[in-house]
Amino acid sequence: MIFLFAALSVLLCSVHSYPIEGLLEKNDEYYGNTVEDDDFSVSTLIEKANVNVGKNLSEPLVMFGDIAMPTGLQNADPCTARGCLWPKSSDGNVYVPFRISNQYSQRERETITQGLQSFAESTCIRFTPFNRQRDFVDIRSLSGCYSFVGRRGRGQTVSLSRQGCVFRSIIQHELLHALGFNHEQTRSDRDQHVRILLENVIPGMEHNFRKIQTINLGTPYDYNSVMHYGRFAFSSNREPTIVPIPDPNVAIGRAQQMSPTDILRVNRLYNCNSSASRNDIQPVQQNQFL
Ligand SMILES: [Zn+2]
What we know:
CATH topology: Collagenase (Catalytic Domain)
Bound molecules: zinc ion
Active site: 174
Oligomer: single chain
Helix content: 10-25%
Shape: globular
Number of strands: 9
Number of helices: 6
Strand content: 5-15%
Distance between the termini: 42 Å
CATH architecture: 3-Layer(aba) Sandwich
Low-confidence stretches: 1-31, 71-77, 275-290
EC number: 3.4.24.-
Mean pLDDT: 81
Structural class: alpha/beta
Radius of gyration: 18 Å
Organism: Channa argus
GO molecular function: metalloendopeptidase activity; zinc ion binding
């Protein structure tokens, strides 16, 4: 499977080197969502950074674009009902220990730390420096951007490659996986909100669009979620793979950071409540607490 994935990664790489000429006109109809605009969508950044994922046999198998699988082929089913949530402290906060590899520059460390701290501004998640806790997220620069879904136990790798993954949107995206969230377009109710055009998907990459029986926490489908892929994710031919319905021109997958719905979901999944200890939050940020 690893070898298969390596082969597919090479394929993915070749897709990004397609000539641009003559292919633009068709996509211009998608306002704010052309192939070129999409260059900065979370999924495009992740796709680009992940061209080498799967080549290193010491790294985990990665599926669904950037989700590490614990063993072989299996669905990234929601595990949050089975105990993969991070534990809640008696003060109402959820402390998630983290360790950042010394591979990063000072500036990269700051970007990552700011990404981690952004969760404290609007949720009860508190990423705290590793201090010999049993379970923790181990942030390292491996061959792409990827994470397991939910708490796996012991040190779990969150890979943020120095080549293309140290951005606020991707840091939040990968840590939302580690907190238990899947991609927005795999939601159980996605067919009411997007059409998946499998005919435009790179052969062998269809699994990235498989639906998951997600727990949606009473929150609406959100095109602006930082967990939503862009319109051209895994496209084999520069035609869209995800088209919103009913209005096909709505921008999707363009989030630069967590949306209000992403924040609401974290707070609902972890049952954050406004009476939790928030001494470390500035008053202006408390207003954003959902
Ligand atoms: Zn992802």
